[in-house]
Design goal:
The structure is a single chain. By secondary structure, the chain is of the alpha/beta class. It contains twelve helices and twelve strands. The strands form two sheets. Strands 3-2-1-4-5-6 form a six-stranded parallel β-sheet, with helices on both faces. Helix 10 crosses helix 12. It is globular.
């Protein structure tokens, strides 16, 4: 049985409704060229189609705040149904991809589907505060219904090989950079960094700095952990930067730079649908609380 997915989009500067739907459905080359996000058709073109598509699921319907946008997403990603009302997704879908990264609107878009017991993948950042996160979880009907992540936590580009780990020794410091604003992009460096810490490691102190003029969303957050590890997260706003990690160990150090968006998105989406099929939790609440705690700390 094919899992029917519904896509909710679009938020400013975020092309995920196009790219995520294409990962399941394939895409129309001409329409995708006009999606407004030039990087998307470039990395889609590099893949082997239809072999690369996620099997066992398809995007069956789309809703956005603008019917014209919805129709274009549908054409570009071969989605058969365009909904004029958000609630129309209920009858056409088994699960939801909330492919918007404006966290302040997540609860209004997710609540009806959470209350109905449908699995919902919520785009990063899931929330900007622990209070807002808890409001979402009050509507979770069973563990694992809410799935959320930075897809970069699935990226091989930001993973150390066993040989790398042996070479650098015990990790003592991690420095991470992302372009654009803290509110929308800090999750992309927080989650990969947390993957290098023990799950029971806890923050002992925070230090925040931000650029006053111009306020382009740039922030830096230094976190000291109970293990003795220090992490520093930097969102550079409008200043150019690669999305990268530098890991310092007791023996050496290494740099990791994110490059392959498609692979990371596909792996995250695959985990979501496999979790639905298996009936288990792929995105634990405790982990999401940990990531949002750091996002909120950097907003101060």
């Amino acid at each position: 049985m094919t899992l029917r997915l519904g896509v909710i989009g679009l938020s400013e500067g975020n092309g995920h409704p196009y790219s995520w739907a294409a990962i399941f459905n394939g895409y129309d080359k001409e329409a995708m060229e006009n999606c407004g996000f030039p990087v998307i058709p470039r990395y889609l073109k590099k893949q082997e189609w239809p072999e690369i598509q996620v099997k066992g699921a398809e995007v069956n319907a789309v809703w956005s705040q603008d019917p014209k946008i919805s129709k274009h997403i549908a054409k570009a990603a071969r989605i058969p149904n365009v909904c004029r009302r958000l609630e129309d997704l209920h009858s056409l879908c088994d699960a939801i991809l909330l492919a918007r990264d404006d966290a302040e609107h997540h609860i209004e878009h997710a609540i009806t589907f959470l209350d109905a017991g449908m699995p919902v993948y919520i785009d990063k950042p899931v929330a900007l505060s622990l209070e807002a996160l808890e409001k979402l979880y009050k509507h979770e009907r069973y563990p694992g219904q809410i799935f959320t992540c930075s897809a970069l936590s699935y990226s091989n580009d930001l993973q150390l090989t066993p040989a790398d780990r042996e070479k650098i020794g015990e990790i003592r410091q991690i420095t991470a950079f992302t372009p654009k604003s803290w509110a929308k992009y800090s999750m992309h460096i927080i989650e990969p960094v947390l993957g290098y810490l023990n799950s029971d490691d806890s923050p002992t102190s925070f230090q925040v700095s931000k650029r006053r003029k111009p306020d382009d969303g740039a922030r830096s957050l230094i976190v000291n952990w109970s293990s003795g590890v220090q992490t520093s997260f930097h969102a550079t706003g409008k200043a150019s930067s690669p999305l990268s990690l530098r890991l310092h160990g007791t023996e050496s150090w290494t740099d990791l730079t994110f490059q392959n968006s498609f692979s990371a998105f596909r792996s995250a989406l695959l985990d979501f649908v496999e979790g639905i099929a298996a009936g288990d939790t792929r995105s634990p609440k405790s982990h999401n609380q940990r990531t949002v705690q750091l996002v909120e700390a950097g907003m101060q």
